[in-house]
Amino acid sequence: MQTNTSLVACHECDLLQREVPLPQGGIVRCGRCGAELYRSHPDSFERTLALTAGAIFLFAIANAFPIVGLKLQGQVIQTTLFHAVQILWDEDMKSVGVLVFVTTMLIPALQLLGLTYLLLPLRLGRVPQHFALVFRMLQAVRPWGMVEVFMLGVLVSLVKLAHLAGVVPGIALWSFAALMFLMAAISAVFDPRDLWARMRVAR
Amino acid sequence: MSFATAASRGLLTCHACGLLARAAPHGHDICCPRCGAQLHLRKPDSIARTWALLITAMILYIPANLLPMMHTSSLFGSQSDTIMSGVVYFWTSGSWYLALIIFFASIMVPMLKMIALILLLVSVQLHSRWQLRQRAGLYRLVEFVGRWSMLDIYVVAIIVALVQLKALATIEPGPGAIAFGAVVVLTMLAAMAFDPRLIWDPVEEKKRG
Lengths: 203, 209
Prior knowledge:
- Chain A contains seven helices and seven strands.
- Chain A has helices at 44-64, 81-90, 94-123, 131-141, 147-162, 171-189, 192-202; strands spanning 7-9, 16-18, 27-29, 36-39, 68-72, 75-79, 166-169.
- In chain B, the strands form three sheets. In chain B, strands 6-5-7 form a three-stranded antiparallel sheet. A two-stranded antiparallel ribbon of chain B has the order 1-2. In chain B, strands 3-4 form a two-stranded antiparallel ribbon.
- Chain B is mainly α.
- Chain B folds into two domains: 1-41, no CATH class; 45-208, Butyryl-CoA Dehydrogenase, subunit A, domain 3.
- The chains are: A alpha+beta, B mainly alpha.
């Protein structure tokens, strides 16, 4: 088995194409079906690492503090994300609870930890153990992280509840909003090609 | 421009890291030399798997829309809300933009997604060379938009968690939420099982004659 580095195949239509050098910030699209083949981002590696570090902090805050509260007869009832999952579990909606837990907590956490695990040692010139395994995990898990959809869901429920009682946005709401942008930025900036190139150099 | 596919040259693309690898002449279970992911010329049993997941999703789409997502019980009686009655509620209470968002994310997107996948599957099975680029774009749209259907699940989760005050009202999740969550997950899995390269393979077949 031999590898071929000067050619690239479109992952959506299988067309073989020659790799071309890219100006910074450029995108290469498949000549036949228009799918994005690869892109080059200035400082992709450093930016991904920085954004991941920021996202970890926001993720911690977003999960430790209440997302929203309801003000009723002088009382404020608040809920964190995990509390919402617990209630679904207790209400015998275990599958729905698990779905919410996995898509909004477990997978974003795995993504952030996985990226840190790969990028930080590489930055210091070392290749972490099980590099390929963690990389594959990151790729497999990516479609299931849904922070941005959750954010829209929270906004819709806020409007729905505003008819019922006073709504108090919590700290976690703002953190989630910011986390949503950082996660989007990470997936835009992260460049697997660059990662493998650096890994070859480090080894 | 002359077109050659990786498959016609005996090359496999790794779906995880994008590396091109040469297929062994009679190799099964080849792993990517760089990242170790399993390599396939095309996703295995793509059409059968996509149909299976899609049909299951279509069946569950019925209870997802007919069964209540939430039960509200208060001093003034109790009430069950399906997805559609939630949309109607927002529409009549003046939040027409939210009504549109929910209608689009929860009713239109899953339905259009299922129709689009049927179209893609049938056209691939007929070895059609009709509107190749448009169908490729349709697949990309299906993959991109699917996740947004999860919206209603999160709305149920937040509202149920907050309205647990026994004095005023209690809102409980309904069985519709389970069916709806399953529809979203199954349609996402179906879209992942489908191999978009199958759309383009008839072009190769024609060239070979």
